[in-house]
Design a protein that fits this description.
Layout lengths: L1 H22 L7 H7 L2 H32 L8 H4 L5 H7 L5 H14 L2 E2 L5 E2 L4 H8 L5 H14 L5 H17 L3 H15 L4 H10 L2 E6 L5 E6 L2 H15 L13 H4 L17 H19 L11 E6 H5 L6 E2 L8 H10 L2 E6 L9 E2 L6 H11 L14 E5 L3 H4 L2 E2 L3 E5 H10 L2 E4 L5 E4 L11 E2 L5 H8 L1
Parallel strand pairs: 5-7
Antiparallel strand pairs: 1-2, 3-4, 5-6, 8-10, 9-11, 12-13, 13-14
Helix pairs in contact: 1-3, 3-6, 5-6, 8-9, 8-10, 10-20, 12-14
Length: about 475
């Protein structure tokens, strides 16, 4: 066991040394000057080497942490952590580094799953997840990706055979290394347990709901801090209200309706003033919460009633007929049970969008220039948000963009439309990008020559049903 660990770390040290030579061709003191004088290609190449160093260093930390955790297991006659006066491996590692105990414990937990084990007679056994371990050691995946995959496999392990689990591990790692973006990997890992064990959606939802809560803390400087843990349904209500006040294209002003001076936004010449909004996003969100609270008090006559909010819930047809599938609130990634979906529609003003067996919304057409609200909701069900590669903007922050320009096609329906946030919509229209869906319905963006001379298409979007279907077949 010790020899295998030493060999692994030696291999990683060699890879680190190779990338470090490329990363630091000069002394650290002149690194900034070197970066400022470098070409664009050299700068991006340097970043690539730095990321490789980061991934390999993470891998080494996790491998060492796993071995420390193995030697600190309580079943051993003389656990390492307790011998050195610490309660567990996480505490021991934290005491020897600048990391918190929570960070060190997370490294140790992942390391235990990915490092070789020692059998009862001293023989070396493979790690629980050897494919992930190999990819992490080679720097092919990040520690975060490895943790997502391990957590997903732990959740499905009780419901599949050992061979099936190994097959899923290989398929997910292959997708993470060769095809999927970090966002798509996270979506696949989050969704996979629901597809493998649909009967478990309701219990998992109940567990999430049991962890919901709000904590209030008074900080030393007098700041009042609230920490909110939402279940998916509550998050859908809250985020719909927040998006209505903080979406980038909205001109939001937080004033008291009775304050006439505050409503005067004209300059001395009588022209509309254009003050610079210097608030951070966090401050805008807090102001939005305050405005929601003020509005609630202003309109509350002493009885709490009426509708909760306006939100959208996407419901596969089988969830309504047999209850055998999960539903999800627009903009909230966590799946909810069919029972929750039916109840939400019955007792709150929520728009239900039913999807067919292929996960596609109804086809809606229009001869108008702009997409209708119904078309945008249908595209939201299909696209899940901005389709630009790597963008996480939710549907409510997005525009309905035309694939073929309307001035040429005169066609405004969802087959000629897709969702883009305002920033990427401008990039698409002005920079010469093109968009198409392949035979599987996957979204692809082709860059203009000045961005990529080879014009290699880039996959857009986030989670697609097909990505998970390929795993569970």
């Amino acid at each position: 066991m010790q020899q295998r660990t030493t060999t692994l770390l030696a291999e990683q040290a060699g890879l680190l040394s190779m990338h470090a030579d490329a990363l630091f061709p000069v002394d650290a003191g002149s690194l900034v000057a070197t970066l400022m004088a470098s070409s664009d290609d050299d700068l991006l190449r340097l970043h690539s080497h730095a990321v490789d160093v980061l991934k390999l260093a993470e891998s080494a930390v996790i491998a060492v942490s796993g071995e420390v955790a193995r030697r600190s297991e309580a079943v051993l006659p003389d656990p390492l952590a307790r011998r050195l006066g610490q309660k567990n491996a996480g505490a021991l590692l934290a005491s020897r580094s600048a990391l918190t105990e929570a960070e060190s414990s997370a490294h140790a937990k992942l390391g235990l799953a990915l490092t070789p084990r020692e059998g009862l007679t001293g023989e070396t056994l493979p790690p629980f997840f050897p494919v992930i371990a190999e990819a992490l050691a080679a720097g092919s995946v990040t520690a975060r990706a490895a943790r997502l995959i391990v957590d997903a496999l732990h959740k499905v392990e009780p419901h599949v055979s050992a061979d099936r689990l190994a097959s899923l591990e290989r398929a997910i790692v292959n997708g993470a290394v060769n095809e999927w973006s970090a966002l798509l990997l996270a979506d696949v890992c989050r969704t996979l347990p629901d597809r493998i064990d649909p009967d478990g959606i309701a219990p998992r939802e109940a567990a999430i709901r049991a962890r919901r809560g709000a904590r209030r803390r008074l900080l030393d400087d007098g700041t009042v801090q609230w920490i909110l843990n939402f279940d998916p349904e509550a998050a859908a209500y809250f985020e719909a209200a927040m998006d209505a006040r903080t979406a980038p294209r909205r001109q939001v002003r937080f004033v008291d309706v009775d304050d006439s001076d505050a409503l005067d936004t004209s300059d001395e010449d009588g022209l509309p003033a254009d003050p610079v909004d210097s608030r951070t996003l966090e401050q805008k969100r807090l102001d939005a919460v305050t405005d929601i609270a003020r509005d609630s008090l202003r309109h509350d006559d002493g009885a709490i009633g009426g509708v909760d909010t306006t939100a959208v819930i996407h419901i596969p047809l089988e969830a309504l007929t047999s209850g055998g599938a999960g539903a999800w609130f627009e903009g909230i990634e966590t799946t909810v049970s069919a029972a929750t979906a039916r109840r939400a529609i019955a007792c709150a003003e929520i728009i239900g969008l039913v999807l067919d067996g292929e996960g596609q919304p109804m086809k809606l057409g229009s001869t108008h220039r702009y997409f209708t609200a119904g078309q945008r909701r249908a595209m939201a069900a299909r696209d899940k948000g901005c389709l630009w590669p790597g963008c996480t903007a939710p549907p409510r922050w997005c525009d309905g963009a035309h694939i073929d320009p309307w001035v040429k096609s005169k066609k405004t329906d969802i087959s000629n439309g897709f969702l883009l946030c305002h920033f990427h919509h401008r990039r698409f229209d002005e920079d010469g990008w093109t968009f198409h869906r392949d035979s599987k319905g996957e979204p692809w963006f082709t860059p203009p020559p000045h961005v990529d001379a080879s014009r290699r298409p880039r996959r857009g979007g986030r989670l697609t049903a097909r990505a998970v279907d390929d795993l569970v077949r």
